[in-house]
Design goal:
Largest sheet: none
Shape: globular
Radius of gyration: 21 Å
Helix content: over 70%
Strand content: under 5%
Order of helices and strands: HHHHHHHHHHHHHHH
Number of helices: 15
Distance between the termini: 11 Å
Structural class: mainly alpha
């Protein structure tokens, strides 16, 4: 450990800076955007006396976009924290278990299927509404997560087998998705690739309503699973010696991680590095105390995606830079620095 702060003092102030930063980003995201809106107009909307145009921009465009980004960031970050804890792998995130790739493949199929159907006959079964997309991604992501889990289970769970199965299945699903999109045609390729880049463009309150039940369910379940998550950090024999039903609790935590990650992928696309970097940053700020790491992960995850979206809007102007590009550019060097300090 470095610096003047001790291990006992560090967690007490660990939330102050991230929460301050998160509040500043939230305000900045409300006041700034591709449409130039005077600050007094934004304040008038917040006070309930704004013009119709300003109210339309704030209430139906910026706010749902901000809330969707915050929830998606929380989902990715908490999913990464849970997966790193139960697999005892500091590099685990929704990508390493194939959850993101499973969601990606099903979304790619859905988008191609929908475009094909819409161009053929709007009344055929092929014309499925796009609001089903998050649900489709959830089905694909969670199915993949439990396929990987079932392959890792023989007589007993092997964390190494789980990780290797996730990498192999994830790579296969990613190749299938890319091959499918490339073979379908250039127009559809552009549509799917836009989603794969990760974006909050045109996200509405409908997307918030889809994500929110997953957030509430996790907020209720994870405190109840707090002790189990701590025990799952040990080998199976050690965890059993504490009286833990290892497979049951492992499945419950895995189910929570898959649901959080898949719902976020289906809503904003597969954002890399959020689930990987944020838990490391939370551990760096709060140490090993899971009770402090979890709320810090929530705050940092929401802040990272909100900040990335704001940066993409301001830097790209008319042509927004996808969130996935921003998180990748910021996440890779941040992860290298954190891993270097931890080593």
């Amino acid at each position: 450990m470095s610096g003047p702060m001790t291990r006992s003092a560090r967690p007490k102030g660990a939330l102050v800076l991230p929460m301050t930063l998160s509040a500043m980003l939230l305000l900045a995201a409300v006041f700034l955007g591709t449409v130039d809106l005077p600050a007094e107009d934004v304040l008038a909307v917040l006070m309930g006396s704004g013009s119709d145009d300003a109210d339309l921009i704030i209430a139906t465009i910026r706010m749902p976009r901000i809330v969707t980004g915050m929830l998606a960031g929380i989902h990715f970050a908490v999913a990464g924290l849970l997966l790193q804890a139960i697999t005892r792998n500091p590099l685990a995130d929704p990508t390493i278990l194939g959850i993101s790739q499973g969601a990606t493949l099903t979304v790619a199929i859905f988008l191609l299927f929908t475009v094909y159907g819409a161009s053929a006959d709007a009344h055929t079964l092929y014309s499925l509404p796009l609001r089903w997309l998050p649900l489709v991604a959830c089905v694909g992501g969670m199915s993949t997560g439990f396929l990987v889990f079932s392959l890792a289970m023989r007589n007993r769970l092997s964390v190494l087998r789980l990780t290797l199965s996730g990498i192999a299945i994830g790579a296969t699903l990613h190749a299938l998705a890319m091959g499918l999109v490339a073979g379908w045609g250039s127009a559809r390729f552009e549509i799917v690739m836009q989603w794969l880049s990760g974006s909050l463009y045109a996200r509405s309150w409908e997307h918030v309503l889809f994500l929110f039940p997953f957030t509430v369910a996790a907020a209720i379940a994870l405190p109840l699973l707090h002790r189990s998550i701590d025990m799952l950090r040990f080998e199976e024999d050690v965890a059993r010696s504490f009286g833990l039903s290892y497979r049951l609790h492992f499945s419950l935590v895995l189910f929570a991680a898959c649901g959080l990650a898949a719902s976020a992928v289906g809503t904003v696309g597969p954002l890399i590095f959020v689930g990987l970097v944020v838990p490391h940053l939370a551990h760096f700020l709060a140490g090993r105390r899971f009770g402090m790491v979890m709320p810090l992960t929530v705050v940092l995850g929401a802040s990272l995606v909100t900040g990335a979206d704001l940066a993409g809007r301001l830097l790209g102007q008319a042509e927004e830079i996808p969130i996935g590009v921003i998180t990748a550019l910021a996440g890779a060097p941040a992860l290298l620095v954190l891993l270097r300090r931890r080593s």
